[in-house]
Specification:
The protein is mostly helical and 148 residues long. The protein has one domain: dinb family like domain (Four Helix Bundle (Hemerythrin (Met), subunit A), Up-down Bundle). The chain has helices at 2-17, 20-24, 33-57, 67-83, 86-105, 109-117, 127-147; strands at 26-28, 31-32. A two-stranded antiparallel ribbon has the order 1-2. Helix 3 packs across helix 4 (67-83). The longest helix has 25 residues, at 33-57.
Length: 148
């Protein structure tokens, strides 16, 4: 998908210019840039696993996750994501984005259509998740540059 490619390239560009100080900078309340990158890596890798399991089980689409479960996972994982060294989080975010985009590109059209019809379009269009967090990272970097 072109939108996935576009936002993955944006991710690569942002990660490539981050300094050690940038990784520790707060991008959202309670979330550093490094934590957001680790978060992106986790969710992209989870999408790959969900598709892999669905295909192995003969299911057309992966099982959905409730918003409550998603929030619990984010809350429980944030301390680990914050503790991850920023450069590692950046490398993982890029590698996971590449993996999920390749996974999605390889899906049969019937699976893609079924996921979208079931309201699981975020399992196909990974740019939606990236944009949200890359915008927060870009804003934090811009605010820091303006403050200098």
């Amino acid at each position: 998908m072109a939108v996935n490619d576009e936002q993955r390239e944006r991710l690569v560009q942002i990660v490539g210019r981050l300094t050690s100080d940038d990784h520790a900078r707060e991008a959202m309340p309670g979330w550093t840039i490094g934590a957001l990158l680790a978060h992106l890596a986790f969710w992209d890798r989870l999408v790959v696993e969900r598709w892999t399991q669905a295909i192995a089980d003969g299911a057309t689409i992966p099982a959905g996750l409730s918003d409550v479960l998603t929030d619990l996972i984010n809350g429980a994982s944030l301390p680990q994501w914050t503790a991850m060294p920023g450069p590692l989080a950046g490398r993982e975010a890029v590698a996971a984005a590449e993996a999920v985009d390749a996974c999605v590109e390889g899906l049969e059209e019937a699976r893609v259509a079924a996921a979208e019809a079931a309201g699981l379009g975020r399992l196909i269009d990974r740019s939606r998740h990236r944009v949200e967090h890359l915008d927060a990272i870009a804003a934090a970097l811009e605010a820091d540059a303006a403050a200098r």
